[in-house]
Here is the input.
Amino acid sequence: WRTDGDELAFHFHVDKFKWLMRKKPFVCDSAHWWLPRIETLIESGIRLKVVAIKRDQEATVRSFLNLKGGGDVGSINHWVEHDDSFWNKNFWDVCYPKYVSDSLEDALNQYWAAYYDEVARLEALYPDVVNMFPIESLSSEAGQLEILSFCGFAKPVLLADAHKNANTLDDGRTFFQNPISFLSV
Here is the structure.
C-alpha cells in the first residue's frame, strides 16, 4: 500500500498490465491497492480510467468485520501493525494502509474515510480519469451505462443478469471487497 514500499512488485504489475494492453483493446484490474499509485500511473502515460465504487460506511465496516472474523482474538486485521498475538497476520496485510487503533472496527472506519477522501481528491484533480460511483450504480441499467460511458465504451452491451459476488451479507446484499477498478481505454 505504501508508495515507498516494494517497487519491484509494483513495477511487475505495471509491466504485466502494459503487456496485456498490447494484446487486448481493454484491460481491467480491480484492486484497492492501486489507489496510492493512481497518480504515478497517470503520470506514467498509461491511458486509464479509474472507477471507484462507493459503498455506505456502516455496511462496508460490517462486511469487513464479518469477513475478517469480527475483530476478536484470531481475527485478521490488515489495518493495524500488530505482533500476531491477538489478531492473525495475513499475507495480504501489506496491501492495506495501517492505522493506530485498538479495535478492528475503528481501524476499518479510519480506512473507509481515508480511502474515499483520497478518491475524492484524485477525482477533483483528474476528473477525466477518476470517477466515483455509488454502489447502487451497479444494480441499474442507467448506472451501468454511466460507468461504461465514463470508461469510453461507445456502444456498451449490458448483461441481463450481472454476476453476484460470492461474498454476500446475511441480508443478501453483495460485499464488493475491491471497491476500485481501473480500465485502460
Summary: The mean pLDDT is 86. Residues 110 and 147 are 27 Å apart (CA to CA).
